[in-house]
Amino acid sequence: MTESNYDEIMKLLCDRLSDLTNADVLITPETNLINQLSIDSIKLLNLIMEIEDAFDISIPINALTDVQTVRELANLVHKIKTTSS
Amino acid sequence: MNLLEKLDAAAAARKALLPNGVGAFGIPIEEIFSATEARIGDRRVLLMGTNNYLGLTFSPECIRAAHEAIDKEGTGTTGSRMANGSYFGHRALEKEFADFYQCSSGIVFTTGYQANLGTISGLVGPGDTVLIDGDSHASIFDGCILSGANIIRFKHNDMADMEKRLRRLGDNIETTLIIAEGIYSMLGDQAPLADIVQLKNKYGGILLLDEAHSLGVLGKTGQGLVETTGLLNEVDFITGTFSKSLCSIGGFCVSNHPQLEQLRYVSHPYIFTASPSPATIASTRAALELLQKGSHLRDKLWSNCRQLYSQLQEVGYQLGPDPGPVIAAVVATPQQALLLWKQLLEHNIYVNLILPPAAPEGKSLVRCSVNAAHTTEEIRYVGDTFAKLYGAISTQT
Q1: Peptide bond into B60 cis (omega under 30)
Q2: Which residues pair with B176 in a beta bridge?
């Protein structure tokens, strides 16, 4: 996977997180999904499903336990996309 | 936040949902009168929240078998089967379950929870994949966690979503376990087993079906969803519990795959736990016999299910897609669910209150479990009471 793909993942994540959360919150790669964005588990699972469809991958739900920030989520998606392509 | 403070935070969240010390969870039951009645506080209540689907908890055959086993073999086995050996009853019950499902072998576990935990964690491990329904029971989910396998979830009973995820697995399908349930415990709906089997045959994988809620309930002889669909031979592993239609405690797994036997040596939830007590095994054996001959009980159960489902549906309650022994009214908020639950108890009806996050997709449920021992009048009373409370619940915010 190329760098642009990683950027594409990051952009999609930031866009979707902006839609899901308060417009005043600035989404950065270091933004904490739970503490800063207060995303509940249902919203997070719905977001994950959207990401899965966007990149045609399946993200194991147990892999999400290590994900706290937007960057960590982007890294996970990137890793799965790379190994599945 | 330290460890104890985390528990305090969880307790605070629970209290916020259940104000004034309402004991909706683990309610004290002072006395049990029958398969359908008990005393809670000073109330004689109708039990509509148990999983006693065939109403066999007080069956003379089961009680007699348990008494005889205690007299003959004592109260407990005091250890695991690996260490303390397998009693005749353990082995007999395994054979009886295998025969019941026309399988070559069966394993008995100490609880239904452990049947899923032990089977799943014995079948898959790190690097493997489990594909599970989004509404899977906690025992399935916990078994997957224990296994260390990659857990991929498809939307509840959504075959398009399941197929998409099977396709994405690619070569990993070789090491994938697909898991579904005969009847799902939250809304009481059934897995679309024919479609699941079709997808499994198209893509591959091993299929495990948990018949916990469907054993004794579905099929001419009570095998469960495999029997009503005629797909017994298409399912690789069947698990189930003794604590619902069989009225005791324990669980099982049956299969025609000879590898099932290996689970006895790799499955920690099987190895490192005390084996079921003689009384448990004896009453389960008696209940399994009654279950197979219990078509009249199933007829009565289903008559009760259809009666209550149609009564609640007519009133306007949002229910699961089909009638069944689990009938859950889905309400808009936890407050509405709590009010309905409390009001039902004040009318001497005990049901289950299920609030987020236990219920799927943030729903709040008031769940009834119907059984064959409920009379037509009792079911009508429950339906009428739900109807009487509907207006107050709908307007509560």
Answers
A1: no
A2: B129
Q: Are B140 and B114 in contact (CB under 8 A)?
A: no
CA-closest candidate to residue A55, choices A77, A25, A28: A77
Q: Where are the alpha helices (DSSP H) in B37-137?
A: 60-73, 81-84, 88-100, 112-123
| Calpha distance B225→B227 (Å, rounded) | 5
* A38-47, A64-73, B53-62: least confidently modelled range: A38-47
Q: Which residues of B touch A60 (CB under 8 A)?
A: 129, 150-152
- A-facing residues of B in 130-159 (CB < 8 A) are 144-145, 150-153, 155
Q: Is the ipTM of this complex over 0.95?
A: no
Q: Which domain covers residue B164, as residue numbers?
A: 60-292
Span B287-340, pLDDT tens digits? 999 999 999 999 999 999 999 999 999 999 999 999 999 999 999 998 899 999
Look up the CATH number of domain A3-80. Answer: 1.10.1200.10
Please state the domain extents for chain A: 3-80
Identify the CATH number of the domain in which residue B287 sits.
3.40.640.10
Number of domains in chain B: 2
